[in-house]
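Record copied across here:
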Amino acid sequence: MGLKSLGRSCAAACLGTLLAAPGHAQTAPTPTPTPAEPNTSLDEVVISAGRQAQKSFDVPAAVQSVDQATIDQAGPRVNLSESLNRVPGITVLNRQNYAQDLQLSIRGSGARSAFGIRGARVIVDGIPATMPDGQGQASTISLPSAARLEVLRGPMALLYGNSSAGVVQVFTADGPARPTVTGTVDVAPNGLLRLGAQAAGQQGRLNYVLDVSDFRTDGWRDNSAARRRHLNAKLRIDLDERTRLTLVANVFDQPQSGDALGLTRAQMQANPRQADARSTEYQAGKSVSQAQLGAVLSHRPDADTEITARAYYGQRDLDNRLSIPLSAQTAPTAAGGIVDLDRSYSGLGLAFSHGMAMGQGRLRLTAGLELEQMREHRRGYINNLGARGDLKRDEDDTAQSTGLYAQGDWAINEQWSAVAGLRASRIDLRVRDHFIRPGNPDDSGRTRFNAMQPMLGITRHLGENTNVYANVGRGFDTPTLAEMGYRAGGSGPNLDLRAARSTHAEVGLKTRLSDTQRLDVALFHIRTQGELVVAASSGGRSIYANAGRTTRSGVEVAYTAQFTPEWRAHLALSTLNARFADAFSSGGATVPKGNRIPGTMERTLFAEVAWQPKAWPGFNAALEAMHLGRMAVDDSNSDRTSPATVFNLRLGWQQRAGGWTLREYLRVDNLGDKRYVGSVIVNDGNGRFFEPAPGRQWAVGVSASYAF
């Protein structure tokens, strides 16, 4: 607990010091365009696909990034859902529930998750935010200090290992050349307030960013109040011309977050802002704190070779109060209604990359080793209407992951290039049961998953402005420790769950229609055997099972245009046809072949028109349109959400005077005050599937920065 305690003290001290500092200002810690200076480049830099920095146009995969100016314009920078909705192929739904995190799904993978992130790898500054068993968290990401968000989809993402239908990477900004201090205030309805402070700069060989924030809200729904405190720090030290050491620290403390639970359709229609009665009766919600440290060392022996090593360690504490009826908590094999979790996690990574001439072109080889482990002490207690009762569960869980990968990128000639990769993965999950009582036997056990994940791709370069590519790969998705936590009709973990195996195929087109217009199109098909599905979900407890085959196919389109220096447009369109290819049994009922996979959205659309008039320097405005398609709520497709289209307006201002920069923004989301469902709880056993989205909402933000 020492690391967390130190982190909390440091976060509080730094926040107080920086907010009290003269000027308490705000600036982008890297020379990325500000909201009044939008990025007009149509060819952003990404690194996910080849693990080396390269222009996204040259990457033979579906990959897009979101720059710092866009992140700053998207809202108070609390949730990934604010800015990632402009990337095709990924759905990030704000559940209005800080006790359950966001619902993030890439190409329909991970839509089943009742909490946290599944089906995608989340990486922050080279440090995984996804645990070895495949469970990830988005709440610990510090958006105010982020320079770029990056999303990779398709077969190339499989080389990142378990549960990698896609990869979301977050990169903390570098400090600017001039030391700068920053202060920010964001205000919105329902008591939302975010205070932030930042210090960043360059001193000789040392580049630094220190960002702290305090966020609180009363919540849009009843029993959905939350508070978060966050510290994110990055130090980059250039040891010499060829060697760089980066140190990162992240402290996250969420002492309060109520869980309003889902609503039935009747409850939602009567009052979408209400919480289910059990939510308040059992004081449903959670508190969580996490602290982690990481180091990345990069060395270039010569211009063609790079060696990178990383190490990290973290701790996480969680106290989660579930709304399980007392009668269900007291059974001999029940695990209680309060989850108390102490977790530590760590990892090591080593990567080697070398480029060389080959034939008419050039070959770059990359190889790496990744070792990750997680240990947690999990206890369950009776939730006696919000008070902790008798012990009902006591176990030690461990997850270990070993990955060895190799990738080759070959620029064959001016017309052709190819990529091939292979990853060998092993996941070990183990449960040691300490709660052994009459009627509750020793439920200790372990299981192991092994997989070889090959990937192959080819690209045809049709001149300087058009690339056509095709990729294919094999992936796997293991159950997490949480998904193995319960089994039907007994106590102990569900060790019979198997890993889902999948085949991914993708073809794509990237073309510059002109110097100011770019179009990316990707078509994909995913076939999965042994899909992990929610067999039953009730009272905060989900039981999982393996279904038969499933298919996911769709089209993703991204279009960006800078029509004039004043006018810019962006469009992201995704379609998804995700269905069960085999009939299977779920909750005592037969799910027929052809049913839609619940929680997957049939289509999404984001469109934006932005205006920056020359006549009004420092002013910018944009109108956004978002369309959300239908979602089935359960395997039986007994109900669906209705499609919804909402419009958002944002305005921004910027003023400069000497070393000072002032910025203000105003956002109005859901201009038409439309009622719609924001997300669903898949297969909820009580029929409480629906999590309503708020009506018209506004947000105002002010920042001031001073560069010394």
Q: What stands out?
A: The longest helix spans residues 2-20. The chain has a mean pLDDT of 90.
